[in-house]
Amino acid sequence: MKPAVTPAASPPPRFPHLRQDLAASLVVFLVALPLCVGVAVASGVPAELGLVTGIVGGLVTGLLPGSSLQVSGPAAGLTVLVFEAVDRFGLPALGVVVLATGLLQLLMGALKWGRWFRAISVSVVEGMLAGIGLVIIAGQLYAAAGLKAPASGLDKILGLPGAAVDAVGSTRALASLAVGAGTVVVMVAWRRLPARARAVPGALAAVVLATLAVLALGLPVATVEVDGLLSAVQPPGADAFGGLADPALLGTILAFTLIASAESLFSAAAVDRLHTGPRTAYDKELMAQGAGNAVCGVLGALPMTAVIVRSSANVQAGARTKASRVLHGAWLLLFAALLPSALALIPLPALAGVLVHAGWKLIPFRGVATLWRRHRGEALILVVTAVSIVAVNMFEGVLVGLALSVVKTAWEASAVKLEVVDKGAGPIRAHLAGNATFLRLPRILDSLEALPQDRPVELDLSGLHHLDHACRLALENWAERHSAAGTEPVRMTALR
């Protein structure tokens, strides 16, 4: 009798989640397409460069380790900074800035600095995004009316009443505004439709409907200028690298690096809360972003960050592996190669409407109210950071926010308590506890100098955890002055 033959176990499929990832990649592609084009136009660069950055975000950054499900591409959060850089240094310098940003991110990831970006105050990051959102909204309101926006964020906001008057007197501007407003209305209303209809992303649906309306009604509205993908890609020449000797350009590179890295890693933390898969390796993710930005810089394209809108769409669409974000880059490449002329049909006010909606979502209205009730200091940092970005510029506004955060932390860490015990006879006993730093020095000295000059004092420092140099010198000088009046010398108990 022949022994039974056990059939060999079939090998596991090479791509077990291909169906889910393929479906998710199409959703992310449809979300990314209007945003890539809109961010590029708002940044003052050819629309095709937004697609290039989205393609690199999928095919380069998407393949690298770090975060498995978050998606990278051109971000609304960098629109203001890119526009300022292009306006000041010219388009050829953008490639140098983005390349240098990518190399710095690679270096920081190699040095394992990625985890330290989590130490940046959330209030500073939210204030940064709120300031960016305000500037985007103000600037895109001009674009929606077909008007030229002022250069600075503050001028954009202050000039809105005059722009409204100009728009009312122009039929062309009113038509353009109607298209932009209609785009926003469609995007807001789209979320209330049945789930089956919402399978098409709201931004894409709004842009398609706006395009059809403009074509059907023959509205006198400006559309996207298209030169072709290959002609838009302009690698930086040797002359552009000469700008690295300019301290202002170096400051811009530092701003790009700080903001792009912080936004990407905060996005990674948010995406990790949306799924139960592998967690983000922050240093590897920072290097992946750096590699993508280095490639974008070589191609003269826009900088990239991880984008929470695309990333959350990827998770919600059922993505299981990084294949979904790689495939979304492939779909962007196919569109740019086969259908570039379709971009020329898109009305500019429709893209402005998409970005107004995106800018509005960057402003954490509920977060500010919650912070004000629970942590007013953090709420103040958020608001001051946002206002500084609008009033000055992106880089200096973020520095103001970081400085305020450090000062607040130092102030809270230097909490000190001075307790005075006076029994009416004998020496007065003063006990210091906590952390005595220069920030609390005026309060400490005021209390000590108010003690009776003709009584001996015992100053107990054993309850202090920290006594900085400025406080130590000030206490010693006070003790000398108090004893100089002929009173018994101040007795100080040493720090533990």
TrEMBL record:
GO biological process: transmembrane transport
Top-level taxonomic group: Bacteria
Domain SLC26A/SulP transporter: 18-385
Cellular component terms per the entry's GO annotation: membrane
Protein localization: Membrane
Transmembrane regions: 22-42, 49-69, 89-111, 123-145, 173-190, 202-222, 248-271, 291-309, 329-358, 379-404
InterPro entries to which the protein is assigned, alphabetical: SLC26A/SulP_dom, SLC26A/SulP_fam
Any Pfam family matching the protein: Sulfate_transp
Keywords, sorted A to Z: Membrane, Transmembrane, Transmembrane helix
Signal sequence bounds: none
Keyword Membrane: yes
Membrane topology qualifier: Multi-pass membrane protein
PANTHER family per the UniProt record, alphabetical: SULFATE TRANSPORTER
Protein name: Sulfate transporter
Organism lineage string: Bacteria, Bacillati, Actinomycetota, Actinomycetes, Kitasatosporales
